[in-house]
Amino acid sequence: MLALAYELEQLLAKISGMDFVSLQPQAGAQSELTALLVFKAYHAKRGEAGQRRRIIVPDSAHGTNPASAAMCGYQVTTVNSDARGIVDLDALKAALGPDVAGFMLTNPNTIGLFEERVREVCAAVHDVGGLVYGDGANMNALLGIARPGDLGFDCVHINVHKTFSTPHGAGGPGAGPLCVKASLRPFLPKPWIVREADGSYHYDTAREDREPDAVGESIGTIKQRLGNFGVLVRAYTYMRTLGEEGLVETARDAILAANYLLALLREAYDVAYDRSCMHEFVLSARRQKQQGVSALDVAKALIDEGFHPPTVYFPLIVPEALMIEPTETETKETLDAFAAAMLRIAERARTDPASVHDAPTKAPLRRLDEVAAARKPVLRWKRPS
Ligand SMILES: *Cc1c(COP(=O)(O)O)cnc(C)c1O
């Protein structure tokens, strides 16, 4: 197990362009928290922890980014995206100062666009002594093509459960390894896995148990040992099965599939930022909304069409957002069928919007009472009486 974990660390370091990896964080959000604790420890070591109180996030960021920063005790400053849907460099520079601990950037961003000026963005943050956190949940588009470590990021988390085989949105266990540059290594969670000259592996805990101070500058343990180990085994198996060529092809196929779908749908739906996309793109159902059919209605109608609906109402900067990520695994037939379903729904919105309001009609359950589900969750299965 330790050998597999160690080799997985090496693979992730190579893919991300970073020097060291911690497999401890159990999800993207926990990796964000881990990284910000690492940032805090890094600034504390330089005697600047008290001074650096702010974390900057773009307005397109996943909600976990500002939440993690707040949990870490940071103030959050939001910078708006520009008209092209990427970070507004001038707005970022205006927000930067000696009180900034770091900047959190997703690349490609949640709109599915590559942050074209990412090197300048990272340099601007470094100029004021801040660190750049890479939200790598969208690594699917970069595998073997670009590496966050080469783009200027100080660290990046990888959502193993999104990029390497575990099905998207499975709702099951995850893993969010944190990959860092050498400058941040001393602060990584302990224990570390070490490989001896004779090829054996062990945790470096024995020494820590003897001399607690040996933990040194580490932020401590974030999660016991290897947590959801099965997710890591699956990721490792996936990477080794595909190999380097296969991983690059994965990213290329994901990007191709997304652009193919975008081309089929851009007439019928508004496109948030109409450029070629990476592995996902964001449509807006604002035209359909005017016809009386919301993004939620479109999603529910897709269930009747036999498709699992995409994420809706995110990113927040796009009204009536439908975020579509076909992934690398769907065939052209499936993509065509999905596009046809989306076009049929757009046509119903135009000609008979009321017909969509009842969807789904073919699913075992109809529209759920989402308020009741949140307020009075039923968390235990009971035999129907
Ligand atoms: C999914 C996601 C996260 C959070 O990851 P979890 O593993 O769900 O905690 C963070 N950022 C982005 C861009 C994501 O897509």
Write up this protein.
There is one protein chain. 39% of the residues lie in helices and 13% in strands. It is α/β, with parallel strands linked by helices. The protein has two domains: 2-238, Aspartate Aminotransferase, domain 2 (3-Layer(aba) Sandwich), CATH 3.40.640.10; 285-375, Aspartate Aminotransferase, domain 1, CATH 3.90.1150. Strands 1-7-6-5-4-2-3 form a seven-stranded mixed sheet, sandwiched between helices. Strands 10-11-13-12 form a four-stranded antiparallel sheet, with helices on one face. A hairpin with an 8-residue loop joins strand 12 and strand 13 (321-324). The chain is globular and about 65 Å long. The N and C termini lie far apart (46 Å). The mean pLDDT is 94. The structure holds pyridoxal-5'-phosphate.
SSE inventory with pairings:
Blueprint: H1 2-16, E1 20-22, H2 28-45, E2 54-58, H3 64-71, E3 75-79, H4 89-95, E4 100-106, H5 118-127, E5 131-136, H6 148-151, E6 155-158, H7 160-163, E7 178-180, E8 193-195, E9 201-203, H8 205-210, H9 229-265, E10 270-271, E11 281-284, H10 286-290, H11 295-304, E12 311-312, E13 321-324, H12 332-351, H13 370-375
Parallel strand pairs: 2-3, 2-4, 4-5, 5-6
Antiparallel strand pairs: 1-7, 6-7, 8-9, 10-11, 11-13, 12-13
The structure holds pyridoxal-5'-phosphate.
Pyridoxal-5'-phosphate (PLP) binds at residues 27-29, 62, 64, 106, 110, 135, 137, 159, 174, 176.
